[in-house]
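<tokenise_the_fold>
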Amino acid sequence: MKNFWSAHKKSLLWFIIGIITIFVTSLTGSLLQNKGGQIKVSDLRNETNTGTITLKHVQKEGETTTELTGTAAIKGEVKSGILFVPKQASKDNKLPGIVLTHGYLNNRELQLPFAIELARRGFVVLTVDREGHGNFENTGSQNAMMATRGLYESAKYLYNLDFVDKNQIGISGHSMGGYTTAMALMTDSMPIDITLEDGKTKVKSSTGPNIIKAGLIQGWSTFITASPNTSVGILKAKDDEFFFNSKDENGKPTISREYLHSQDAAKFVKAPIVAGQKINIENGKHYVNGQIVENKLGEKISSPFRVIYEADEIHPLNHWSIPSTGYVIDFFYSAFGTPSIQGVIGTGNQIWWIKEIFSFIGMLSLLSLIFPSVSLLLAAPIFKSLKTRTKKVVEEDGTIKLMNEEITPELVSRNDVSLKKWYDYLIYLLPGVVCTIFSGFVIEWFATDLGDRWFPNTQLYPQDTTNWVALWSLVCGLFAFAVVFLVYESKKATSFFLNKKGIEHEAIHSPFDVLHISSFKNVAKTILLALIIVVGLFLIVFINWSIFTVDFRLWTLAFKVFNVPELIPTTLRYFVFFFGFYLLSGVANQTYRVKNLPEWATIAINAFFNIFGIALVITIQYATFKSTGVLWQGSMALGYIVLFPILPILIFATIISRELYKKTGNVYLGSLINALIWTMVTVSGTAASFSYVLG
């Protein structure tokens, strides 16, 4: 044991420090999330409850009006949710309850900033997956994930909890979840069947259940209707990629940043519209029947109100920004007041972003475990052959002897190129420039046309955005591989010419040597090693969640828990495409190795070329949007948002690819690990248009 420690001290220390860092960051994140143990945080799966509600039925016969009383069952259901319950909540101290839900392609965890801040302020909060998203599998048609299922049923679940104030239940959802919020408000205002006191007669109630007393629509511009007893708000980005186009007082079209001066805004808050008189709805002001009412933070407004909040941001930041979080706090404080025995906490007093920082550090620590784990496993007898390769040695007598040599970083770097002259740099950089520009400027084709035509949604491949991203990635990998091949062939031709002239030059080495692997046995070992690493990482994710109820994330990039039986088969099907990309990209990564630059610099150059083209088109899109209020490529309103997490993924993947190549002398281990990890992260973090199938 002592000898093992001495031989692998660096890797063991790295692994131990990584585990400790994960523990510390997760514990800290958990304490921030649960207010130092003052809030109970629970992962709910397939939970149901039942309660009743009493409603009136007004019956008219001629001039006689009869008011009858009846009851209806309120059936609550949470397929997948995270429940925050402050410790002071009880039967004798009922607290307001709020249900939060996410937008298209997202999941319940994307509403955690709001959940954390509202729970800190004494609200019972439930953030839930909608159907077809997160851990709530699509059980219906392709359109099921656009429907309302998930939110209203969860509001009913809160209604039935004995520590929740039935008269103070609110809902809020982002984007498509905003549509779900609007639909739930409408549904809650519609009459339902009730059973009269005789226990037999069923009639329609005169009003809706109206169990929802406040609804905040995030990032969605269409409001339908709600009970007159319900306060309703809209939270929007100043520049929203999708919604909030309207008309001004004279009927002239307006764009999102002009929404507060539009007819739709005035109609929402019930303010008068006079032709020629500029509409000016005040941001964050509460309106009752078109008139502003003043209130202090934490003070309940006595009448149902309307309010529009506009944050200086873009649509996807509505659920991940300090201003928007402050507006959510203000809305529910104004709707329900300050929960009992809970003092007012200012809207700027927010800690969710600190928890997010710790979650990101945890993610970096989780990924860092790959390197010491691989080093330690390569020292095991079963995997030791992956660190050696066969070498031919010519003896003095001319005989050829086969010897095994250990693969070391020095060995794999001996074929690195030297950059001395300006044209060396040109030849070195030009292929990267070509590949990165290609990868960025073809995105729109795949996201809006080629993806749908070449890779349509099916039961086997049910995630529409994953489909086009997988296809685009593979084509980019093939393009980079072709460029590497052409550069190599041109170098061979140049070398042949120089040899003919007798000019001394640096030897040309094949970039495809990185694809060599010594035996089929080592192929199997490489696959086994990759599986051990990836399964180990996700075991940590699940164990960590079971202990702390926190995962590893930065905004939409997340290592999160998922339904294993449903997602693994789908992941493996998408894996084929992503493995192709990471393998081909790995060849390109190893081609870019330089003798007279430090390793960190060559990794940085590779990472730059892997992301620059994508970052460039996203920058053009949003620089244009910021300056004009109109997108550069309107058809890519969603497409570029989908690719936000791909930028850090490609940086991480570059590091993993190059570092693991130095340990094995081939690109397969890094490519397998990258493909398995990032396919799982992608598939578990988005939506499915169909139910998952095993076949």
In short: The mean pLDDT is 91. The longest strand covers residues 39-61. DSSP finds 19 helices and 18 strands in the chain.
